[in-house]
Structure formats: C-alpha cells, structure tokens
C-alpha cells in the first residue's frame, strides 16, 4: 500500500506503514461517509486545542485505532499518510470518538512536534478571519 513521505514528497511501499487492518462491523455501521467513502477527522490536543483537519476512510480509521498512530487519507494524492512517519512530528492517539451523526471523527492526540505540514503547532495558527491577530 502506498504511503506518502511527508518531508520528501516521495512515495514508499513500506509494508509496516499501513498494513492490512479492517474496521469493526460495529464502527463501520455507525460511519456516514461522503460520496468518496471518506469522513472528516478533527484532531485535537489533550487540552482540547484543535490541531488539524484531515480525511479518513475505513482503512485509515482501522489502522489508527489498532496502532494509535494518526493515519489519514490524502484526497489529492489518493494515498495514506501516517503523521510523522518521516518528519518525526508524530501523533499518539489517546482518544477517538464519532460525533452524534456518525459523519465526523474526533481524535485526541498527544502531539510530538508541529501538527501542521508547515511545522506550526496547529494548522489554525493563521490570521483570524475577523482581522484580529491570533493570540493562541
């Protein structure tokens, strides 16, 4: 299975990267996926700070639950990526929940390094849309 190398942009077929895992039938039945078979995953720190938004399919969620490593599906590259596999900015998943509709996953992680691909702590460190500077 192809996994994206975060830092170099190269693809690898590291068999350890995203092995064969299946989502339990109970969880699979609760998920409401979009037309592409994906659900959004909100990723927050243990303090409740929103770090990023990514997409998961059943396999990415199953792998995340089995390994407790943040694993996502890239819509643009059409491949899986494990947060920190090459950058070292890893996510240790300490909690996973579905929202009341079953159409969004909430992951609580112990973030090691920046969560954003830019290296920032969170993907939401940009200027506030109301025009105010972020004091976070």
TrEMBL record:
User: Which superkingdom?
Assistant: Bacteria
Could you tell me the keywords of this UniProt record?
Answer: Amino-acid biosynthesis, Cytoplasm, Histidine biosynthesis, Hydrolase, Magnesium, Metal-binding, Zinc
Q: In which pathway does it act?
A: Amino-acid biosynthesis; L-histidine biosynthesis; L-histidine from 5-phospho-alpha-D-ribose 1-diphosphate: step 3/9; Amino-acid biosynthesis; L-histidine biosynthesis; L-histidine from 5-phospho-alpha-D-ribose 1-diphosphate: step 2/9
Q: Which cofactor does it need?
A: Zn(2+); Mg(2+)
- Look at the named UniProt entry and state the broad enzyme category this protein falls under: hydrolase
GO BP terms in the entry: L-histidine biosynthetic process
This enzyme's EC code(s): 3.5.4.19
Q: Where does Mg(2+) bind?
A: 99, 101, 103
- Where in or outside the cell? Cytoplasm
Q: Which Gene Ontology cellular component annotation is one that this UniProt entry carries? A: cytoplasm
Q: Name one GO molecular function term.
A: phosphoribosyl-AMP cyclohydrolase activity
Residues at which Zn(2+) binds: 100, 116, 123
Note describing how the cofactor binds: Binds 1 zinc ion per subunit.
UniProt catalytic activity: 1-(5-phospho-beta-D-ribosyl)-ATP + H2O = 1-(5-phospho-beta-D-ribosyl)-5'-AMP + diphosphate + H(+); 1-(5-phospho-beta-D-ribosyl)-5'-AMP + H2O = 1-(5-phospho-beta-D-ribosyl)-5-[(5-phospho-beta-D-ribosylamino)methylideneamino]imidazole-4-carboxamide
The Phosphoribosyl-AMP cyclohydrolase domain covers 52-124
The record, for PANTHER family, names: HISTIDINE BIOSYNTHESIS BIFUNCTIONAL PROTEIN, PHOSPHORIBOSYL-AMP CYCLOHYDROLASE
Function per UniProt? Catalyzes the hydrolysis of the adenine ring of phosphoribosyl-AMP.
- What family is this? In the N-terminal section; belongs to the PRA-CH family. In the C-terminal section; belongs to the PRA-PH family.
How this chain assembles, per its entry, is: Homodimer.
Query: What is the protein named?
Result: Phosphoribosyl-AMP cyclohydrolase
Which organism encodes this protein? Corynebacterium aurimucosum
